[in-house]
Amino acid sequence: MIQKIITGFILFIVTACFAQETENSLLWKISGNGITQPSYLYGTIHITCDATLNENVLKALDDTTQLYLELDMDDPSLQAEMMKTMMMKDGTKMSTLASAEDFEIVNKFLQETLGMSAKMMDQFKPSMVNMMLLPKMIDCPMQSVEGELMKVTSEQNEEVYGLETVKAQMEALDAIPYDEQMEELVKTAKDNMAADKKKFKKMMAIYDSKDLNAIMEFMKAEENKMYGDHSEALLDNRNKSWIATIEKVAKTTPTFFGVGAAHLPGNNGVIKLLQQQGYKVEAVK
Predict the structure, then answer these.
(1) Which positions carry the signal peptide feature in this UniProt record (predicted)?
(2) Quick check: 24 and 209 in contact, CB under 8 A?
(3) Fewer CB atoms inside 10 A, N or C side of the chain?
(4) Does pTM top 0.90 for this prediction?
(5) Taking a C-beta distance cutoff of 8 angstroms, is the pair 54, 248 a contact?
């Protein structure tokens, strides 16, 4: 019993310290454990109103010689690979995942918002349709942090690589059952994206605060229940699969790694996983 209490206390202290360390920084320096020149880990946001990179990020890009994102975003075959994964398996259709009334609501909504009928996209995964709606969910022209990172990398005549394949990323997304994906799309259509717009506005504000713990809590919130319920497939398992590549790459070449900010915090986050492997991962402020 005493041993359990002591162990629990130690875990509490470690967790508390880790929570403190992960606050208020999106940029982290990776060093030690055989790394001769530091690499950097940066938490990105996939859609935002302002993707301006600050001086610390620009310096880290200057100090590294290649960029790794979740996917190799400048791969000319990327779009074709994405298209291959857009359809549901086994002939499943959106029209069979919702009532006739709800499907008609979605159909009308998509016609008004995207200029496309739901009947034309009937075999598309509902999550893919939701992704097509992302630019409409923010009240500004959409910008991308990944796009800015790639722009600087291109100007420096450096290469862009990916930590995973499109197939692996889509397999993670497929962990969310089709009926849950459709339920989310129906909700989006019924309130004309009102809840989504509110959510994205909140998410961008949290991201701007650079508070990784707040980002982690936001992902667990009721408004993100579908993603929170499947965080093991969407975040944890992917984080773990990236570590071997990050280790190998960082030991040979000073590299800038840019992944969604939600992948950084927590016991199964990239920061903690790298620290467990013996690397020094420290915030750049």
Answers:
(1) none
(2) yes
(3) N
(4) no
(5) no
